[in-house]
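For consistency, the fold was encoded as tokens, which produced the following:
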Amino acid sequence: MNKLEKTNRRILAVQMLRAARRFYKLVYLSEVLGIDPSVLSRYATGQTLPSYEQAVKIIHVLRERINLPSLVLREAEGPNGMIDPSLPLMDKNLLTLIAIEFYLRLEGRRVSKILVPETSGVVLATAISMYVDADVIVARKRKTSPHLRWIEAHVTAPPNINRSFYVPYNSIRRRDRVVIVDDFVRSGYTLSSMVRIIEEAGASLEGVLSLIVFGEEWRRVSGVRDIDAIVRIGEAIKLPR
């Protein structure tokens, strides 16, 4: 790891620590990290950076001790117990923790494009792109210009499922290594459309990231074997749409 990469890791630790303070008291963070509260406070406020070795420790311990699934579910709960995946993405500190977690899961994979359907998942995709340095491609639900060439994906299934998405031609190229991002995955039909777009472009699928995944139907529908998710729910729940 070169000097720039080490500096970035130190900054990443500070960002995680700063975001974590929104949900955990400094005394608790000091206890689990084994670092004096006054030192942690200086890290979190940007007065000083931890050493590279200290940063690695901070990132590792925070990933173990921060209960990210619990935080996401708590923030996602709306009226009458309805789960709204867009709500956790409105909290900048929680969004930071989520984006960093996905970034760390993607380390070692070469990602050049992030493909996201035109939903609230765009917020998550954009946040992740700031860390992985990849362009975000939004799959639109309709063509925005009659003068452009489009890659199209259409999925239909009885009784009333109809998914159509479009991305500009050459926005994804054969050499691209693409990650699909969405705020939640349920039936798998939208995911299937994203996979078809990548196949049509001749690019390679490097993985799928989702804030919340529930059920198993998406495996059969999309053909995707696994999803990197923050929260996995085994049974269907109410989701606003």
